[in-house]
Write a structure and sequence with these properties.
This protein is α+β, with helices and mostly antiparallel strands and 114 residues long. It is built from two helices and two strands; from the N terminus they run E-H-E-H. A two-stranded parallel ribbon has the order 1-2. 6% of the residues are buried.
Length: 114
């Protein structure tokens, strides 16, 4: 009677195959490495955008197009400036902590009833 012993895979698996997607978790737009590309239609507007970038501590490459058919494109900057900050939520008490309403009862017996 012969016993069968498994020695492992005959062909080793290939790990970490690059499928053409970006492997870095996040590229931060507006940083020194990845500056914003912005297009404005006048030198005065360029100075306003430079002030907006410096106030938000962002980096960008600003191009000025003086032609009549030029359209201003600062949408990448407005998206970054309109993002809201992290919202802080008040901690919910544990089940056996006193209730926040001031009744003196445990949270699970008072307001924690679901």
């Amino acid at each position: 009677m012969s016993k069968f012993f498994f020695k492992g895979r005959t062909d080793p698996r290939q790990n970490h195959i690059n499928h053409g997607y970006q492997t870095k978790a996040m590229t931060k737009a507006g940083s020194k490495k990845y500056p914003l590309s912005l297009l404005v239609t006048s030198e005065a507007r360029k100075q306003e955008v430079v002030v907006m970038l410096s106030e938000a501590d962002l980096h960008g490459v600003i191009s000025v197009d003086l032609s009549d058919a030029a359209v201003e494109d600062i949408s990448a900057l407005t998206v970054l400036l309109s993002k809201t900050g992290t919202q802080v939520v008040e901690k919910i008490p544990a089940r056996n902590d006193p209730c926040q309403c001031g009744s003196g009862r445990k949270y699970k017996k008072c307001c924690g009833m679901a």
